[in-house]
Design a protein that fits this description.
There is one protein chain. With 294 residues, the chain is of the alpha/beta class. Strand 1, helix 3 and strand 2 form a beta-alpha-beta unit. The longest helix is centred in the N-terminal third of the chain and has 21 residues. The protein is globular, with a radius of gyration of 19 Å. The structure holds S-adenosylmethionine. The site of S-adenosylmethionine has 19 residues, from helix 1.
Amino acid sequence: MSATPDPTPPTPDDLRAGSRERWERSSAAWERERAWFQEAVDPVSHAMIDAIGPQPGHVVLEAAAGLGDTGLLAAELVHPGGKVIISDGAEGMVEAAKRHAAERGIVNVEVTPMELEWLDMSAASVDGLLVRFGYMLVPDPETALRDARRVLRPGGRIALAVWDRPEDNPWLTAGTEVLVRHGLAEPFDPAAPEPGPFSLPRERVLELLGDTGFILPEIDRIDVRFRSPSAREAREHFVGLSDRATTALKGAPAERRAEVEADIEAALAAFPDPDGPEGAVAVPGAVLVAAADA
Ligand SMILES: C[S@@+](CC[C@H](N)C(=O)[O-])C[C@H]1O[C@@H](n2cnc3c(N)ncnc32)[C@H](O)[C@@H]1O
């Protein structure tokens, strides 16, 4: 009996196309869940802004920006004379970010489609670059960081954020483990060829910043909490935001879906919110914020 040949591994372009399709599909959910997600990771945005130190007149680029929550914090700081460019590869995210900037009445902002791996900006045209939860998602983060350094003026600053280890991020892993247990999803594998939330561990981030010519890289961990008034709402937010979970649940036989949802809620209820009302949950996450000079 001959062994089944390994399936052909996906090319980087296959990975890019699959990722783009997923993010286009997710943009409506990210717009719906924006407030819940941002409330949890607001300290990350502020740490990133502090790390680049925007000044009046600066040009600040946020790439892979999603709804642009971090970049928009810089808009007031670069006024007068400066501007913020919010960019994302997914058209749906760009449209959502335009609505978000308009709702907040921010005028010194441009919102535009842009690839993270090849930034559509002139050399040395940017004073500060922000990338929150982006670099771990691209097939070639080294090329992306080289391009980041190209667009930054000498002495410009980069601040980036990635998730710390899976075991530090139950907000994302606890529900996913339930789906894995039910045979509906694959576990997160930081070493898989397909990039994912845990593809860039601390050592790799520092190595990449050094290899791409950034100076004096530093990295800090920020602990965050994803709060919901009940485990049911926590499950709804988690499934709403995670394309992997949404897809997995859609694949569950209808008669088993309620059981899987109840199991996800039980997993999230294991993190009661000590500061919240009865039944409220605060599911932990941990983020690495790295910064360096170009
Ligand atoms: C996890 S979300 C983070 C969004 C936002 N930065 C935040 O922290 O709320 C990842 C974002 O990166 C974008 N993205 C993924 N790959 C990209 C690429 N190659 N070029 C540009 N954007 C990309 C997605 O469309 C999505 O908006």
